[in-house]
Structure of Zinc-binding alcohol dehydrogenase family protein:
Amino acid sequence: MKAVQIAAPQQMAVVEIEKPELHEGEILVKIEYVGFCGSDLNTYLGRNPMVKMPVIPGHEVGAVIEAVGAGVPDSFKKGMSVTLNPYTNCGKCASCRNGRVNACEHNETLGVQRKGVMCEYAVLPWNKVIPAEGISARDCALIEPMSVGFHAVSRGQVVDNELVMVIGCGMVGMGAIVRAALRGATVIAVDLDDEKLALARRMGATYVINSQTENVHERVQEYSGGMGADVVIEAVGSPATYVMAVDEVGFTGRVVCIGYAKSGVEFQTKYFVQKELDIRGSRNALPADFRAVIHYMKAGNCPTEELISRIVAPEGAAEAMAEWAAHPGKVFRILVKF
């Protein structure tokens, strides 16, 4: 079967691999759409230390059930639209014992620590297949990245009378904006790109700040009545935005970190103490986060057309990735259609 493979930095091609065999307790899915995410871009650029090349990327999936193995619950039917939970969990580490399987110490994500599913077919354990009836296979490929943003809002324990600042309006940041707005919070979206900020408004942000052309601190003080944000969600992964998060959160506020900074970050640690901050990491997503995104998308309020920057055939994946690498700030999601 056909698959997209990254063989070395900036070397991507279509290859032929064996179609997987279906066993007991498993489901065979026909992959229809797979999204490229930031980790795939870093793999392509040779900046992802968790990847061993050659690798087949892909973990943001829209698929249809092709066949069901023995021992799979009857609720899974051939032809059903699904997405996939791309994470593993060992069941033995501290995270798993505490019920936070999304942060498993030994997690292996599809397309990162193990072979991904940017290919025509995949076989997974039935409990990693997530039904999404009523949502097209194309739109199912948007569920996983949005669920990461949804999970960050849960980590921040956001409630309806709070001011939430989301730094970064990519797909994950948009998920955080949506979830915070759904919980009734007032959302400030921060980004460098006016087009993304305009979309952030349509997805639930009350205020937007272009950090390249506006004074972020002045705007946050204005919108918060001088108090700062109750919760800041960092969804970029740069030293500057990590520092911004700590600077702009109010006293006794919460900072939730999703992005990985690629270099060290120099903080004024006095703010950790003076503000008595809760600083929390947020990794991947839980099944409940996937269900929450599916519930949101079924309501018909998600502007999916605007979140999909481009759809390409597998043969066009390399060109699309090269263009994304050249202009990273202008892309939400590139989908590969099989």
